[in-house]
Amino acid sequence: MNLRAKDSTPVLQRDHGLHLLREMLRVRRFEEKCAELYAAAKIRGFLHLYIGEEAVAVGVMQALEPRDAVVATYREHGHALVRGVSAASVMAEMCGKVEGCCRGRGGSMHIFDAAARFYGGNAIVGGGLPLAVGLALADKMTRRKQVTACFFGEGAVAEGEFHESMNLAALWGLPVLFCCENNLYAMGTALERSESETDLCLKAASFEVPSWPVDGMDVLAVEEAARQAVAAVRSGGGPYFLEFRTYRFRAHSMFDPELYRTKQEVEEWKKRDPIPNFEALLRGQELLSEKEMEIMETEIASEITQAVEFAEAGSWEPIEELTRFVYSEGPRP
Amino acid sequence: MSAKSAKMRTTYREAIRAAIREALLRDERVFLMGEDVGRYGGCFAVSKGLLAEFGSERIRDTPLSESAFVGAGIGAALGGMRPIVEIMTVNFSLLALDQILNNAATILHMSGGLFNIPLVIRMTTGGGRQLGAQHSHSLEGWYAHIPGIKVLTPATLEDARGMLWTALEDPDPVLIFEHGSLYNMEGEIGGDAGAVEISQAALRRPGSGVSLITYGGTLGKTLQAAEVLEADGISAEVIDLRTLRPLDTRTIIDSVTKTHRAVIIDEGWRSGSISAEITARIVENAFYELDAPVARVCSAEVPMPYAKHLEEAALPQVTAIVAAARQVMGRHG
C-alpha cells in the first residue's frame, strides 16, 4: 500500500512550513558543527551524522505528543533535538561534560532524556526494538493512550531482534510505531548484499503489521504518513511499520572512507536533499522570503554557538564519582 | 507460637510460586512473562495455577523469543511496571544476553542516572538431571561478572520464598538463579515466611576448622560433607553466599579469619569462575590468616555429558568436598 501523502495533505500552513524547515536546518547545522568539533578533537569516539536524513525525524516527531516515547539509534542527535532535548545538553554530552544530558556517561551514541521520554541512543543494531515493545506493553497494560516511536536503520532487519519484536508487538497489539530509516547501507553493506528479500514492507506485512514505504526525503510525506500511522496506533490498532527511503550524505561515521558507493550516487541523492527542496517549495508558495531565511539561519547559528559555548564551559565529572550510576542511589517511586 | 507463624511444609517450587502469587496480589504493576508460564503451568510447574487466578494479561505466555521478551521486560520496567521475566533455563538466557548486558545492566549508567530498570529475571540453572550440554550449565558466576545487575542464588526454602519480593523492590535489575535440582526439595518454613534481605551471605553451619563456601545447588551437598567431616573430627563451617553480586566479602573473610582454611564449592567451571573470584578475595584480604592454600571443588571442564555416571563425575560431589577439606586440614589417606 502506498501512501500518497501529497494528495491528502491539507494546504500547508505558513507557520508549520517554517517550523519544519527550521527543525531540519537546526539538525543540519548542529551536525555540521559536530563534524567540525570532531576534527578539532573536542568530540571523540564514534560520531554518526544524520545529514541527508533530517526529514524523517522532523516529520515523524510532528505526529508525536509529549506523553509518547521515543527509542532511537546511535545516529540520534537529530531525533533528540527535534524531540525537545536542548542543543546545549546534547552538545555537552558529546563533549563528555557533566552538564550533558547523561553527565558525559553516554556520549554521542547514548542520548537519554527523561522529560522528552527519550530512551536512547542504542548502539546495538536492533537492540532498541524489544525496549520499544516493552514501553508499549506498559502503556497497554495501564490503558494509557500513548505511542512509542522506535527508529532503526534498514540494517536492523537482518537482526533476530527485529523479527522477534515485530511479532511480539503484532501478537499483543502493542502501540509501537516502527520507523525504519532505510538509507540503503548498513555501514558499507548495501541492502541487496545482505537481504534475500529487499522489500522491507513485505517483511513487516508478514507479521500482519500494516506497512507503507514513504519518501523519506520529503518532510511533508513523512509527516503525513506518521500522522496517519500514529492515529491508528493510538486508537488501539496495534503496531505500524513505516519504511522511510532516505540517504545519508556523509560517511557512516568519521572512520569511513566510503569505498562501497560512488560519488556519483551520492551526488544524485543530494539533488533530493530535503532541506533546499523544501525551502524551494516554501518560496514557490511565497511562504518564505529571503530575509526570513537569513533570520532563520542566524537564529539557528546563534543557538548552536550557545550550545558549543555551554559545552566548552562545562566541567568534567570528578573521577571520585566514577562508579556512580551502576546501581540506583536510593529507591525510586 | 502464634498460628500465623506455625511451621508449614512446602517445597522449593511451591515457595517460589507463593512468592510470585504474593507479589501479584501486593502490587498491580507486577506481572509474570515467559515461555509456557501460563497454560502449560511453567516448564518446571512453578507457575501452575496462576493463570486461572490472575488471567492472561498478568501471566503472559510469550513466543520463543528470549531477546524480545527480556527486552520487553526492560522496556516495561522503564514504563513503570514491575515485570518478572522467566527464562526456561540459563542456557536459553544466552539468546537474551544482548538485552541483559547491553540494556538492563547499562541503561542507568549510560543515561547518567536518569533511567533505572526495576526488573526481575528468574531462570533455572545447574545440572544433575541428565539434560545434557545445552540445559545443564551453571552460568550464574559468569553473570556475576557484570556490573549493573544483581545475582541471587536461593538455596533454601526461606530464600526461595523470600528473595523475590526483595528483588522486586530493588530499583535495578535482579537475576534469580533457581537450581533445577532444588524444585522438589521439601521441608518446613514459618507460616509467616516472607521477604528476606539479599545483601549478606548466611552462616548455615558454624564450625572452627575449615570454611566451606558455596551457594545454590551445592549447599545441600556441602552440608552433607560437613556432617561426614564432623564424624571424622573436623569442624566445618558452611557459608551460603546467597548473592553472587554484590558479593559479601566481609562474611567470607570473617569466616576464613576464624578457621584459617577455605574450600570453595562451585558448580560452575573452574576457569574464570566465581570460585576464582572468591579465592582472589581471600588472598587479597586474608592471605596471612591462611594455614593452607585455598582449595576448590568445581565442575569438570567439559560440556555437561548426558550419561549419568559421567554427569555425576563432572559435578561437585560430597566425596570430593570431603576430600578437599581433609586435604586443606593436612589429613591424607
CATH fold-level name of the largest domain in chain B: Rossmann fold
Structural class of chain B: alpha/beta
Main β sheet profile of chain B: 7 strands, mixed
Choose one word for the global shape of chain A: globular
Secondary structure: helix percent of chain B: 25-40%
Task: List segments of chain B where confidence is low: pLDDT < 50 over at least 5 consecutive residues.
Answer: none
- Biggest β-sheet description of chain A: 7 strands, mixed
CATH homologous superfamily label of chain A: Thiamin diphosphate (ThDP)-binding fold, Pyr/PP domains
Shape of chain B: globular
Number of helical segments with 4 or more residues of chain A: 13
Strand order of the largest sheet of chain B: 3-2-4-5-7-6-12
- CATH hierarchy, class of chain A: Alpha Beta
Number of strand segments of chain B? 14
Report the C-alpha radius of gyration of chain B, rounded: 20 Å
- CATH fold-level topology of chain A: Rossmann fold
> Whole-number average pLDDT of chain A?
94
The CATH H-level homologous superfamily of the largest domain in chain B: Thiamin diphosphate (ThDP)-binding fold, Pyr/PP domains
Uncertain stretches of chain A = 1-9
